[in-house]
Amino acid sequence: MSGEIINFIFSGTLNGAVFSLIALGYSLVYGVGHIMNLAHGAYFMITGYMLLWFLTFIPSFPLLNVLLVVTIVTIIGGLTYILLIKPLQDTNVGVVLVTFGLAFFLEQYALGISGTTSYSISDYMIIPGATKVWGYSMINQYILLIFMSLIIVLMFALFISKSKLGKSIRAVSQDREAATLMGINANRILFYTVMISAFLASIAAVLYLPVAAINGPSMGWSFLTNSFAVVILGGMGSLIGSVVGAYIVGFLTSFTILFIPNGPSWANLVPIIVIVIMLIIRPQGLFGKKELR
């Protein structure tokens, strides 16, 4: 029984660490531009496949591959804003449709090259092996991921609160028109936030996929759904809410897998249930502010 409890705590923390990295960027983009970027999960997915493809061509330099892939995915995030989001940002439906189209394109691109086969990219594992705690084996790479996630979240919070760019991001998210009158280029700030969101999703993939493996081009949608559940739970645009929501969804998912009969199948419904319940009882989320009409 103690082993199951340790497993529950560790896997819940792991899920929360991954979800928080991915959802932070998603929540940031929504908070600044009130934009729902449905290509966000695709950034995570395409990072995994690019790591796989680069491993074929540059097998001896995994660190170089990681740097190149993260840079490319961050640039893809920037191009997403310039070419797709910016021309349509005044129409929410248009942004949703065009980012969905990009996500579908990236999925089909990966499918055309690599098919639906699962792939291992364990060559990118930073700390191989496992550590036993009270008889339960914890994978070292996942332990690293948890600590790296906490460090990145703290650094991100300091960046938003202390840096000049971070303060500009906060200003635009609070009142775009007032920020513009103060001389802040809102479009440039939103461009940066989309790039930051792609960067965070890519980092999450780099840390998580070397152990979890690549499970097909459609995996991006599940991470998008989890991100959506996290920001709905925590509050759209609330960075604190995103972190808290990530760990709540993470532990709910872990509990479902470990303690509910046929848990792995039911676990896929956890984010959907969270979304539906929160939209009914508290649409603004745990830390969000109720919109005035």
Automatic annotation (TrEMBL):
<feature type="transmembrane region" description="Helical">
    <location>
        <begin position="96"/>
        <end position="121"/>
    </location>
</feature>
<protein>
    <recommendedName>
        <fullName>Branched-chain amino acid ABC transporter permease</fullName>
    </recommendedName>
</protein>
<feature type="transmembrane region" description="Helical">
    <location>
        <begin position="64"/>
        <end position="84"/>
    </location>
</feature>
<dbReference type="InterPro" id="IPR052157">
    <property type="entry name" value="BCAA_transport_permease"/>
</dbReference>
<feature type="transmembrane region" description="Helical">
    <location>
        <begin position="6"/>
        <end position="29"/>
    </location>
</feature>
<keyword id="KW-1133">Transmembrane helix</keyword>
<keyword id="KW-0029">Amino-acid transport</keyword>
<keyword id="KW-0472">Membrane</keyword>
<comment type="similarity">
    <text>Belongs to the binding-protein-dependent transport system permease family. LivHM subfamily.</text>
</comment>
<feature type="transmembrane region" description="Helical">
    <location>
        <begin position="266"/>
        <end position="283"/>
    </location>
</feature>
<dbReference type="Pfam" id="PF02653">
    <property type="entry name" value="BPD_transp_2"/>
</dbReference>
<keyword id="KW-1003">Cell membrane</keyword>
<dbReference type="InterPro" id="IPR001851">
    <property type="entry name" value="ABC_transp_permease"/>
</dbReference>
<feature type="transmembrane region" description="Helical">
    <location>
        <begin position="141"/>
        <end position="160"/>
    </location>
</feature>
<dbReference type="GO" id="GO:0006865">
    <property type="term" value="P:amino acid transport"/>
</dbReference>
<keyword id="KW-0813">Transport</keyword>
<feature type="transmembrane region" description="Helical">
    <location>
        <begin position="189"/>
        <end position="213"/>
    </location>
</feature>
<dbReference type="GO" id="GO:0022857">
    <property type="term" value="F:transmembrane transporter activity"/>
</dbReference>
<feature type="transmembrane region" description="Helical">
    <location>
        <begin position="41"/>
        <end position="58"/>
    </location>
</feature>
<dbReference type="GO" id="GO:0005886">
    <property type="term" value="C:plasma membrane"/>
</dbReference>
<keyword id="KW-0812">Transmembrane</keyword>
